[in-house]
Amino acid sequence: MGEAEFEAAVSDALDAVPSELMAMLDNVVILVDDEPEGPDEDLLGLYQGTALTERGWEYGGVLPDTITIYRGPTLRMCSTPEEVVDEVAVTVVHEIAHHFGIAEDRLHELGWG
């Protein structure tokens, strides 16, 4: 799957998130990158920032949080374009959930891990 097709899969996954939830995203950008930095070469996505549940009165004037979806690990994990699309959808929901303060353990319990 090429770069443009992968980005389209991410876009489609974002379009599938209910608009009510997307409207609640606050100060966050969604990025696509080829590979994660660091030792975890199997990382499919990453949320970096301050979850909504952790923001207090002092939160303000900060750079946007980022959700990054990684193309390389996703393509290596999946064997068909359909699997890529499904995995991207799960990863997008998973990382958005972190923005809302949902912990890794809870996401696994809910089947989004």
Short précis:
By secondary structure, the chain is of the alpha+beta class.
Explain what you see:
By secondary structure, the chain is of the alpha+beta class. It is built from five helices and three strands; from the N terminus they run H-H-E-E-E-H-H-H. It has helices spanning 3-16, 19-24, 71-77, 81-99, 104-109; strands at 28-33, 45-48, 65-70. The protein has a three-stranded mixed β-sheet. Helix 1 (3-16) packs across helix 4 (81-99). It starts with a helix and ends with a helix.
How do the strands of the widest beta sheet line up side by side? 1-3-2
* Assembly state of the chains shown: single chain
Total DSSP E strands: 3
What is the chain-wise order of helices and strands?
HHEEEHHH
Tell me the helix content: 40-55%
Share of residues in strands = 5-15%
Shape: globular
Mean pLDDT, all residues: 89
**What structural class do helix, strand and pairing data support?**
alpha+beta
Roughly how many Å apart are the termini? 23 Å
* Biggest sheet layout: 3 strands, mixed
Enumerate the spans where pLDDT stays under 50 for 5 or more consecutive residues: none
Number of helices: 5
Rg computed from alpha carbons, rounded to a whole number of angstroms? 14 Å
